[in-house]
Amino acid sequence: MQSWKRTMWILWFGVLFCSSSYTMSVPFLPLFLYDLGVDKSSVNLWAGVVHSSAFLVGAIMAPLWGMLADKFGKRKMVIRAGLSLAIIYALIAFVQTPWQLVGVRMMHGFVGGFVPASMSIVAMIAPKEKLGWSLGMMQAGTMTGGILGPLFGGLLAEAFGMRRSFIVAAVIIFAAALAVIFWVKEDRSGETSAKAKDKQPVTYRMAFRNRTLIYLLLILVVFQLSLNMIQPLLSLHIADLQGGEKGAVLSAGLVLSLIGIAGIIASPIWGRLGEKKGHYRILILCLLSAGTVVCVQYFVEALWLFAFVQFVFGLFMAGIVPIINTLMVQNTDEQFRGRSFGLTASANQFGSMLGPLLGGVLGLFLGIHSIFVATGVIMAATGILVWTKRSRNRTVVRS
């Protein structure tokens, strides 16, 4: 096996472990709030605050971790994030109040960065003609973790309680960090020679001069905002659909896993289609389709039908982030790669911070079905805006 592909597969398992440790704990935090004494009338707002707190800090820290990745090595940032997250997940098991949970989630946002640093390594080592496929496979790795995490977390929570599932999540991310420590080597000789040839300092000012990068980051912010408007409320909505909280953690785990299964199937396919048909064309298709499918959930009242629609949504959602990552890599300098993935992570975190807050506030005044419609409209509108901009650019070029 080629060395770049071997490294990619090790990191693939790393992001799988990272994603599974996340999804076996964080999606169930709204239900965990009941154990901490939060009443049903305010749980939607608390769920939004708990989710957003990590993303607020993460949005601030991600560019710093990206800069340090370029300076000291991306592998070191992966290891730092993995070991730190293991401690954070273990701490969640011991919180006693909602505010303590918010504090631990803020620490979670502070130390994050495992997946973007891993993506940055793969983007650096993959051959140009395999870039779309390799980033699609990495996204599929996170989706695979998205399957295993909710299933495993739901089963553990039902059998032993949610607190013990947080401890298991800590062990899993610790194992991912160990895998990187022992089996991933980072060759930085190419980076060093490139820096020697180009004396221009690599700073974040380069990002503000790159209009395409800014444009892609804005798309990512809006997508994550719309996606995370509904994410913190999903487990609560599933409990309502099945008629009670008993067994809701396991049911939520099964439904959330379907999104991950869809992602595994679709992510590599979207990557290949992007290379053949054009990445922007596939991005527009995924945004429009995902938005339409989310709107359909306004009419869904049965749990089995909700699960099916979530699976279809996962098929289209799976193409959006890897395509944006591929376009970002194609439009940035290699020396800026760590920072660009740091900015991508920051955009993800910023949108993920605003989304739960907006969804939580809307949840106080509107039903969850209306939030589904708002989510879908934002996604579809983003697709239309990208389509309009591309059409306008082609018209200018022709004239």
From TrEMBL:
Gene3D superfamilies: MFS general substrate transporter like domains (1.20.1250.20). It comes from the Bacteria. It is a multi-pass membrane protein. Residues 7-394 form the Major facilitator superfamily (MFS) profile domain. Keywords: Cell membrane, Membrane, Transmembrane, Transmembrane helix, Transport. InterPro entries: MFS (IPR011701), MFS_dom (IPR020846), MFS_trans_sf (IPR036259), Tet-R_TetA/multi-R_MdtG-like (IPR001958). One of its GO terms (cellular component) is plasma membrane. GO terms for molecular function: transmembrane transporter activity. It is found in: Cell membrane. The chain crosses the membrane at residues 9-33, 45-65, 77-95, 107-126, 138-160, 166-184, 213-230, 250-270, 282-300, 306-329, 341-362, 368-388. This is MFS transporter.
